[in-house]
């Protein structure tokens, strides 16, 4: 059961049409839901593939999928961390504003050791290390 997106050539608005079958697309006439014009063009829609959490985690573990990651470049580290958080979505949970701040600072090019000095309780009670974060 496909859903296609269209743009009305008269009012320029975009809308979607849910079709009950592929054969219905061939037989049907698309009418703009805003101005009722039949002068519409089908758009190329974005495709989304549903993936399991295991599949996403497996891809993240593969170093060849890390792209231009450079562990010696704070900006690269920040981009990589943001990509990982985005890839995990809701599974990442709320890592808190401190984590977001670390990513923002890394993406701005700030030195990880400087970040650690300026946000000393970043890791909270991390056990015997007293909360030190190891970015290396």
What this model shows, in words?
The protein is of the alpha+beta class and 136 residues long. The chain has 2 domains: 3-42; 53-118, no CATH class. It has helices spanning 22-27, 53-61, 74-88, 96-107, 112-118, and strands at 3-8, 14-18, 40-42. It has a 3-stranded antiparallel sheet with strand order 2-1-3, with no helix packed on it. Helix 3 (74-88) crosses helix 4 (96-107).
Low-confidence stretches: 125-133
* SSE pattern: EEHEHHHH
Task: Give the C-alpha Rg.
Answer: 24 Å
* Shape summary: elongated
Distance between the termini: 50 Å
Helical/strand content category: alpha+beta
Mean pLDDT: 79
Share in helix:
25-40%
Domains, number: 2
Number of distinct helices: 5
Tell me the total number of β-strands.
3
- Major beta sheet, strand line-up: 2-1-3
Proportion of beta-strand residues: 5-15%
Oligomer: single chain
Largest sheet: 3 strands, antiparallel
